[in-house]
Amino acid sequence: MQLLKLTLETTSPMFNGRDNNFVLLPQSIRGVMRYWFRACIPRTINIGRNYENLKKIEEDLFGSTERKSSFDVIVESNYQQSISKSIAGNVFSDFKYGIYGAESKRYLKEGTKINLTFVIKRNIDDLDYLLYYLMYLISNIGGIGMKSRNGFGSFLIIKKDEKYQKPSGFVDTLKKIDVIMQKYAEKLNLPLGGTIFNEIPDFPTLTKSNYKGYTSKQRFVNIQQLFKFLYKADIENPGAYIHLKKKYLRGAHTKRDSFVRSIKAIERSRPERIEYKQALLGLPINYRIMSGHHGNIRGGNYTLSGDERKASPVYISVHRILDEKKTIKYIYKIFIIKSKMSSNNNLKFKKKGEKITLNGYFNFDFKDIEKNLVKANLIKEVKKIEHKK
Predict the structure, then answer these.
(1) Which of 50, 70, 235, 351 is the residue whose CA sits 20 to 30 A from 216?
(2) The pTM is what?
(3) pLDDT in tens, 350-384
(4) From CA 200, how far away is CA 362, in angstroms rounded?
(5) Which residue ranges does the record assign to the CRISPR type III-associated protein domain (predicted)?
(6) Judging by beta carbons within 10 Å of its beta carbon (0-12, 13-18, 19+), is residue 375 exposed, middle or buried?
(7) Separation CA 370–CA 336 (nearest Å)
């Protein structure tokens, strides 16, 4: 029996578990690993028209209702003393925008160590290395638990066996995964060469031209300062993330304000097709206005939605570094990974209780998205992460 032992350390608060309690179970680790494994598969394997090849290798590694997984995960419950009460009244309460929906949940404090043991049950070449590189990939691009897209649940790997060499960077991590995946696919007789997407993929993929990443050069003395920069709830001077959503994507307080244009179109029964750039940060989006707030328009509840609930394709992760003086600082990384927001990227804008519906759209334009990230000061003075295959 082969074992892979890793020690993680959280770099930002982690929210996970049912109800309002925190618990980190093996299925949570497996779930996030499966998500990013799926994103890597099309880099080396032709997944097939109906994703049959993707399903085959994914189920071979992670299991299904018909077969067991190739590995088990053991999470050592040595973090109980690091579980904190909900954010109400503590230093994070000013940044509730970033954890909307999790405000009352207990969370794992930053700086907490988590011991993981992966028990490998099948003889798959370099499976231990694959699992290690997947965890390293996750530590670079995402996190564990709720709100991981917003920078919560970030972690770094602080302890491992010396034989597992740390990749030189994000692209190197992907290349190491590719090498192992190719051997794995050959064993399963799956077609190699990768997958060419002629349109936006249905799910996030780390294939060429389908993602871009940025690393901030701005450094923060602590994570409170970092989250304040991103999510500060201040009408006059909001956090950069809020500024992005309202001013630069929605166009609030400008003639192109997609929300105001939409409610006027509905109230005046003059449907028009509107671009909703704010869909980039997830769907549905609910709006509520009071009567008279926008001229003579009646108040009400409005919803912008696609075919189903859609998480944002923007991933923010928090990282701890040492500066030139060996002082601990914090930075964030932003990855944007293309995936369909809805069928044909069609969106619907409705008012509760009304029959009329506006048909809008979302255009996944990397150049336009990047321009708005710069305007919102989210990626000011950044170094773009190479996105080779």
Answers:
(1) 235
(2) 0.93
(3) 999 888 899 999 999 999 999 999 999 998 644 55
(4) 12
(5) 7-155
(6) middle
(7) 10
